[in-house]
Structure formats: C-alpha cells, structure tokens
Amino acid sequence: MSTITVPAEVPPVSxxxxxxxxxxxxxxTNEGLIIEILAxxxxxxxxxxxxxxxxxxxxxxLKALEKELTSDFERIILLWTLDPPxxxxxxxNEATKKGAKSNHVLAEIASTRSSQDLLLAKxxxxxxxxxxxxxxxxxxTTGDFRKLLWPLVTSYRYExxxxxxxxxxxxxxxxxxxxxxxxxxDDDFIRIITTRSKxxxxxxxxxxxxxxxxxxxxxxxxxxxxxxxxxxxxxxKGLTYPVKYFEKRLRLSIEKTGTDESALSRIVATRAEFxxxxxxxxxxxxxxxxxxxxxxxxxxxxxxxxxxxxxxxxES
Length: 316
What we know:
The protein is mostly helical.
C-alpha cells in the first residue's frame, strides 16, 4: 500500500539523471527538483536512476547527494534513495555502531520484515560491509540483548499460514509460567519468540490472552524502566501487529519533547512503499490529527516537503 505518487508517464531515466545533475550545479542546490524526481519514483526506478547516474557521471548518486545536502533532509533523501534491502543493511550496521541505545532498530528490522526481506537485507549487508549482519549483532550486543537479538536476525521463519493449535496452547502456558517466574530471558521463551512463524506466534498469543486474561505485553510491563523488557515488547508488537508498532513509533517520534527525526525519517523511508496507507489510518484513529498534519506542524523546509511527499497528504 504505497503512498508515493508515481507519474502516469515517467520521463526516461536519462532525463531524471540529467535533471538531478543539474540540481547540483550553480551556486545553490535545487532541493525542490531533487524531491520532485526522487520522491515520485519507485524502488526499481530509483535503482535504475542510481545505476545510470554512476555510468553517466562516474560518481555514485549517493555521494553526490551527500556533498550537496545537509542535516535531516540529507538523511531522508539518502535513506529513500537506497534500495530497500541495502537500506535495511545500512540501518542495521548503523545500529550496531551506536550500542544499546539502538537495539530497538535491530529488533524492528528483524521482527517487522518478512523472512525473505530479512534475508535480502543480510545479503546486502555482505556486499556493502564484507561481513555478516549476524556477526556484527553478536559482537555489538551483550547479555540478554544478545540472547534475543542474535537469533532474531539469524532466523528464517516459516512463511506459511499453517498453525498448530495444540502447540499454541502448550507454548502459551510456557510463556505465562516464565513471565510469572520473571524468567524473561529463559531459553524456551526466547526460542518461541525468535523462531516460530508469525501466524503461530499470533495463535499462541491469542490463546495467552484468552487463557490468562490480558495481552502478553501488559504482563511484560512489570518494570517499565527495564530496557530488555522494552525491546522484548517491541519485538512482539513488531511480529504480531507491525502497523500498530510503526504507528506508535511515529507517534512517539513526533509527540515527544523535541521531534525524534531519526525515527521519523527511518519509518517514513522504510514504510512509504509498503504499508504507510494503513499506518496513516491507524495514526488518525489514535491521534486528533492526521499524520501529514502532525509532520507539517513539527518539521520545516525541505525536510518537511520530502516527508510529506513520501507520506502523502490527507484530503480534507
């Protein structure tokens, strides 16, 4: 459910490349032209633009953009221009370098992507960094965080719809028992969360709620300040209700004191071509304003223009 608007008749890629190069010439960069082109091209078109730009001008388009742009506008443009698997690889690598404060980004990528998309991101990681995502996650995390995040990025979950209801019942009880014992890092607890298919996890957690009276994530709020529990809840939300996960992350990035531009840019860039339409609908349900109105209120200039081009505007 893409929110980007691709023109009915897209100009030849050579025209886009020539116009982008012109945007960098002269005394000032033509940011509006960059937005006009890149924000209205899909992933395949952007990939072709980048390839053709490199062939024509012997320079990676990303390098050209880095030289001309700055700050939050530069970041959203660069993230958007990357191919989706390469973008996830970049975000994961960045997170491994920032330490524990970016563990939630690793959990987000591993829990909200399909098995195939995660595999493509790991392949892109190999090509871009000449090492594996798994080894960097293992190296950059410690303790319970490593115990959860390493199998999350390593897993290739079954993508079928089949569900074993007997197993769901058994594992719901196991999860409840471990939460009751406050054994949140239990091997079997982690194994279930990191390896079971998403339909199986949904069945297990639905049974958990029916049998024990409330959502598992409410039971995992025993200590709201516990960072591991926060990552665990985010992982479960990402696996079971990704749209609600992204809506909440967007809401928090905008509503907190001082906009969290990093989270805002990451989520808009990664979801605009996938499920942004339903994320926007969920946002409107939870907030008094639409997502584009909230973005327009909290951001300015070229950064705001690019975000709104990707998110799309709500008709009155």
